[in-house]
């Protein structure tokens, strides 16, 4: 939960670097919250209202943590846009988010693993 809250606190921070742990814990908790919201909506008959507002709130931090994750492997944040290329784009973005951090300091800052 610490990693999730760290991303929320850095709501629209697009500079710096994000470790794999920060990115993937944030993603996992978002999936879990999405499942809970879907169940609540199915029970209450709200038909996506809760999910809509939650994902609207989490959109900017999600993009920001992805950009920081790309910075961590030495890629520009603009690589985020490759996710919009049909079929192959999301696969490339998935591979990028799974790669280990660039070991040394890069143009985006020091390695967060060693801070």
TrEMBL record:
Presence of the UniProt keyword Transmembrane in the record: yes
PANTHER family recorded: INNER MEMBRANE PROTEIN YHAH-RELATED (PTHR34980:SF2), INNER MEMBRANE PROTEIN-RELATED-RELATED (PTHR34980)
Protein name: DUF805 domain-containing protein
Pfam families: DUF805 (PF05656)
Coiled coil, from the record: none
GO cellular component terms given for this protein: plasma membrane
UniProt keyword terms in alphabetical order: Membrane, Transmembrane, Transmembrane helix
Organism expressing this protein natively: Aquibacillus halophilus
Transmembrane regions: 21-40, 46-67, 79-102
